[in-house]
Amino acid sequence: MDTENGFLAAKLTDDLVVEILSRLPFKSFCRFKCVCKAWLAFSSNPDYCKELLKIPMGLLYQHRYDEFDNDFDDSAIKLASLPHNDKEFDEALSFLPQYEQLELLDSCNGLVLCKYKSSCTPFGICRFIVCNPATREWKVLPDTPPSDYKPFCNVSFLAFSPSWSTKFYIFNSQRPSTRYWVFGPVKFEVFLSDLNTWFLYDTSVLFEAKVSRPHMFIDGALYVHTGLHDILVLEETSSGIPPSLRTIKLPHEDGAFMGRFGQCCFGQSSGALHYALPEEDARTILVWSLDVDEPYEWSLKYRLNMSQAFGRDNLCQHGAPHWKSDYAVVSLDLERDGLFLIDKREDKIRLYKISTGGLTHIQPEDHRSRFLNNKYYHYVASYSKLPALTM
């Protein structure tokens, strides 16, 4: 763009820009969002959302079979989503190879992580596949180093931020396990896509986070809720391997507070970490923002009125051993003005719009959200190319 045209473009009114963007082909509009943060903010501005094209967004989920709880088995990975404009989008990930077992593990900024297994998979290793549902690209990763734990439990996170880097990471921790308990030392492995290899990372801190716990990757730092009232932060260094590790206290000190009312969740906006959790009576959800510079202070950003959204004040049920909220907070997306909830009374997935205070119903086809065991992963389509793996 020359200087004169750039000057003219800067003079365009927002309404005219919206009119131009609404006429773009769908994928061109999606790529427009990736140019810079200012364009992303404009394209996700709630004042223009009715006129602009809609990006596939929702919650990825997979029914899990549990032989001990006699739960039902449905191994298909699906997306409970809002209506969108991309007719070619594969919401069931049917483009992936047909493995005997394919388990959904995580989703991060448009990429999805799965673990696959067959009857001939060697004991003690994990096999992963990373894919982009919007572009139908997928890559099989090298096997993890064999585990010394028999049996073992692994917890895996995907880290990808296209505005920060073209590469992605897999963080994989392994611990000894029994039928009912996970215990003992941690073996922590990190996969780097640009080097196409796994590195062992020696940490003396117990990595107790579970994949169902909140986690978020922002500008080279992975934030993971530990299950207590701390966040574990893993940051990349110049060497490319993330040995830097620190903890940050959550904005509330009562560890039992979160336990009583279930899911909290992380989100991000303008490169800052946000944290959402219902108040004790469940009538309000508090959203905090973290100052990422020391001393890492939290500030209260929103008080979201759930009584008004649900149309009632009684949002708790009493059951042994404590009170329980009628809803669960699943995912926070401030960039798109939304917060995903599970309505436990109605067995429905709902999107709460922060700007309007209204609820939108998003329902999986099978209408059995209560059986998903909290395995929801926030997903927003990205049309950037899947990072290449070196051979």
From TrEMBL:
Residues 12-52 form the F-box domain. InterPro entries: At3g26010-like (IPR055290), F-box-like_dom_sf (IPR036047), F-box_dom (IPR001810). It holds the Pfam family F-box. PANTHER family: F-BOX DOMAIN-CONTAINING PROTEIN, F-BOX PROTEIN INTERACTION DOMAIN PROTEIN-RELATED. This is F-box domain-containing protein. The lineage of its organism: Eukaryota, Viridiplantae, Streptophyta, Embryophyta, Tracheophyta.
